[in-house]
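ugh ok so i messed up the first submission bc i forgot one of the chains. this is the corrected input, ALL of the components this time, i swear. 724 residues overall. if the numbers dont match what u have on ur side tell me asap before i send this to the collaborators (the ones from the other lab, u know who)
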Amino acid sequence: MKRRDFLAGAGAGAIAGSGAAKAARAAPAVSSGHFEWKMLTAWPKNFPGAGTGAQRIADRIETMSDGRLKIRLFAAGELVPAFELFDAVREGNAECGHSASYYWLNKHKATAFFCALPGGLTATEHNAWIYFGGGLDLWHELYGQFGLIAFPAGGTGVQMGGWFRKEINSLADMKGLKMRMPGLAAEVLNRLGATAVNMPAGEIMPSLQSGVIDATEWIGPWNDLALGFYKVAPYYYGPGFHEGNSAQELMINRAAWEALPADLQAIVRGAAEMENLGIVTEYVANNADALKVLVEKHKVKVGALPDDVMKESFRISADVVAEVADIDDIGRRIYESWSKFRNDAVGYAPLADYGFSRGRAL
Amino acid sequence: MKRRDFLAGAGAGAIAGSGAAKAARAAPAVSSGHFEWKMLTAWPKNFPGAGTGAQRIADRIETMSDGRLKIRLFAAGELVPAFELFDAVREGNAECGHSASYYWLNKHKATAFFCALPGGLTATEHNAWIYFGGGLDLWHELYGQFGLIAFPAGGTGVQMGGWFRKEINSLADMKGLKMRMPGLAAEVLNRLGATAVNMPAGEIMPSLQSGVIDATEWIGPWNDLALGFYKVAPYYYGPGFHEGNSAQELMINRAAWEALPADLQAIVRGAAEMENLGIVTEYVANNADALKVLVEKHKVKVGALPDDVMKESFRISADVVAEVADIDDIGRRIYESWSKFRNDAVGYAPLADYGFSRGRAL
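and heres the new structure output, hopefully the right one now
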């Protein structure tokens, strides 16, 4: 995975290489029973949702621990660029990081299972797999190979399909389309006949304006409004097939984790779990309002992607995700656990949120 | 509200009146900085989901506080019956309770907004209103009138429509039907032409067998399987219109809450928030498996309620819920806040979980 593959804040404001990061390395405990940690984030400074939620995690840890564990937050690029977060935490240059595990496909493709998979699960379903379907143990096993441990720590909920410069009426309109798309979903798009391109946030607007790309996905109305895509791409389709939820992670250096007493471990894990629901619901609460601004003030045309595009995207997604099982033993076991859970969840969905929402819409 | 109005564990095993409860009253702090609390629950002992989740909340608080706040759990009837929990916590006979706020309709009908409303919201949407739509502040204002504070602390997710002795093919089949139904949804059922009856868990099976009732709602496959309704009512319809999520609460005596230092307050609130998602996802993870047992082993006929039943139930629900606004000022403000949020959430649903699940099912 290249530099340009990263979703947020990738190059912007990167000021420190590994030398500066090492200089900033903190001793695990500053005095008896007291700790100071650095939290790197993959988000631009004060990024609404994921970024402000990461700050709430740090604040809750400090309050619950009565100041025995203080955490200082660094936005993407302040200490290391977003895409170096994994290695910085792994090497102990920072004790923890708030990010999205599908940024680490170059470490192992199965990392995507703990963030978002094309054609996957909603936030509630995803967390049911993580907490009660075996997901968390598998995640710990995978990250353990890198000297890390991680906990679920937020999510975006369902993401929009994206912004398009021209109308999409059928699968044929996707052929030849150049579209920004991260993660395993990029491969799905390529197999649909489009051309997936990845680039960080700051490059998207000029690329849409110049015609380097014809379309882009980003997150949802609340975050998308701020970036101004409506100025150059009038068609806003949703939901997407690619992220039924894009979960965030609190990843922690294993040695730093093990240096904590049991009560502080429970507090750190707990603060992540609180915001695991907190950040998702903040997106849900803000998306509807932002959509109104896009439609009423900026005259954005909002609609669903055509059924044949959705159907084919979900079909191909199943193939792309299944290929992770061929990588190695842990990849196979993660795929099999998730796949069994997904089958059950999809089968049960007409009796759960999906069925209720459908009845409500009659 | 009468004894028999309560959902779970109402009379069963009730051993203590107010005298015993008073004798069990604990001093708020047992030694400097150390506290021992009682948590009453509205659930039978070891009740899967809500009951075992309440125990996890207590365990997490003890671990995160390094034993400075110990909480002893009491099932419904062990100290006071389920339906006396509100008053027992209010009067300080126990410091806190894990229950469902729609059990307290006799205190104020608006309590239902913090648990479940017919035709309402999914778990994710409900929590978005609570955390980021103004719900929590209104809840604190309402419970403050009773010397209580409460935090969201779990939920069942979407509940099934219920168990029926005869097939339901249209709205006409609901006329004259005697059905167990709690909360404001009972009034909806009555306006549909059915007759709502309320009774605690233990009375449902004999009532179905003797024909006192023709149908009952309970929770979902995971909890319903254990009660054996499939033996006398072969038709299992879902989802219901009545509980898109039935949220649980951690209610706390205000004086006990204020006696805690800030770090322990954050830990108590935090533990409730962790299990707010935890309990919901435990239901989601277990319902699909239990449904397979019901269908494959017990040959239960599972289906959706007819569209005209769902449509009319949702229509009447809106009227019944709106009537809470007429009670008083706080009732009106709670209704208006919730109603505005619900309109936005329903409008946005085709771009959120609902739209994603629909695309996935194509």
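quick check: DSSP finds 13 helices and eleven strands in chain B. that seems consistent at least. Confidence is low (pLDDT under 50) at residues 1-27 of chain B.
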